[in-house]
Amino acid sequence: MDTFPTTFIYIFLFLSTLLYYYISKKQNKKHKQTPKLPPGSMGWPYIGDTLQLYSKDPNTFFSDKQKRYGDIFKTHILGCPCVMLASPEASKFVLVNSANLFKPTYPKSKEKMIGPAALFFHQGDYHYHLRKLVQSSLSLEAIKKLIPGVESIAISTLDSWANGQIINTFHGMKKFSFEVGILAIFGHLENHYREELKKNYSILDKGYNSFPTNLPGTAYHKAVLARKRLGLILGQIINERKEKKVLENDLLGHLLNFKNEKGQILTEDQIADNIIGVLFAAQDTTASALTWILKYLHDNPKLLEAVKEEQKTIYLSNEKGKKGLTWAQTRNMPFTYKVILESLRMASIVSFTFREAVVDVEYNGYLIPKGWKVMPLFRNIHHNPEYFNEPQSFDPYRFEVAPKPNTYMPFGNGSHSCPGNELAKLEMLILIHHLVNKLRWEVLGSGEVEYSPFPVPKNGLPARFYDRAGQ
Ligand code: HEM
User: Fold this and answer.
1) Which residue among 60, 227, 290, 372 is least crowded, i.e. fewest CB within 10 A of its CB?
2) What domain range is 81 assigned to?
3) Residue 3, domain member (yes or no)
4) Measured from the CB, is residue 376 less than 6 Å from ligand 1?
5) Is residue 80 part of an annotated ligand binding site?
6) pLDDT surpasses 80 at 292
7) Would you say 456 and 174 are in contact if contact means Cβ atoms under 8 Å apart?
8) Are 288 and 454 in contact (CB under 8 A)?
9) Which residues bind heme (predicted)?
10) Residue 174 falls within a domain, yes or no?
């Protein structure tokens, strides 16, 4: 009789051990499947890797990390934990396929400076409607009509350089891209408004990247005041346009004409923020691309000859510039176009972008925790030999074959990709056409790069320009 409970206890112990073993194995397995943070170092407490990033060329910082940890790695910069993505698939995941899990993110001081209603700070309905509107004001149909205006800005810009004095090429190109931006936004704009906008926007531009201390005398404070004045000037332009009651096809016309499905229109502040947002997105990017093109062509005389050859044929058929460029001619500059594509790859002006995870996201077994920043690294992808053979050599001919999908993103990807990309390419083609036909230039810079925040040749690529006719 005594043996029954003992046997029972043994059986019970044996079964519970088995069960415990089974459950703990299952839990272990489950634990193993829990996504982990990507590899990488978070640097020093609080400051993270910020000093490392700012003490060396940011491209070296990113590529050193990529070599050490692979295409997805974590780091900590500017007070934020970040996951950096250097693979085309991961960038596509964040910018296209799962874009709803990530939101655009900018420092508050920058949002305030541009205007919080500018489309690139938003996602969802507001962003969708505004983007459609900006896209249609910059569509191929719309920019075709800008050709004579862009051409006359290009000619007067180049004429003002042609006397052999030293020009800061980047500054010169900024003036050009600003004027083209004004043309696309307002069509014709009275001179006094143009001058007021130019003056105040340039103060805002100087303060944008300064330390955000709002104390009298600082660049930031001056920029905040200039931003207020810009709002007032834009208010006057908007009211004049409303009084005229003429429906224009430029960006301002589109913004004034906006009505959502509930019949709501845009407020004056929303319109002003978006105008300043577009000017901001259009100016330094295009100017930097043009500055790099001048440098690359200068450094590669054979390629410059090929561009000249292509452009000379068009120039001659236009009676040496007496007739203006046509849309068809701008669409048929195949070699110059490839030079632009290759310059955008080499310089990778927008080297990366920022998003923020709105929920915990799992990608390829890695966890991207809610609130972490995510940075698709366009430049690292553009300079990866797996996608671009000998990435450090400037070779426009590589674009005779289309790049692999999602490996070429000078204008970004997905719902926030650049709506101004066709205008940017058009203005570059027009400027190059007149530049190579009318001028020759000597670069005086050392070839070093500085970041402002986009990469530009040091000191804006000082250069001397001479009229070719006077040779
Ligand atoms: C070479 C010149 C340019 C380059 C390299 C460039 C590059 C880019 C990139 C990479 C983005 C996406 C940023 C992101 O995903 O976070 C972007 C967005 C944008 N760009 Fe450009 N851009 C250029 C010229 C222009 C021009 C000429 C305009 C307008 C006239 C413009 C207007 C915009 C706007 C409004 C956005 C925000 C779109 C959105 O958030 O939906 N860009 N640009």
Assistant:
1) 60
2) 36-106+350-382
3) no
4) no
5) no
6) yes
7) no
8) yes
9) 418
10) yes
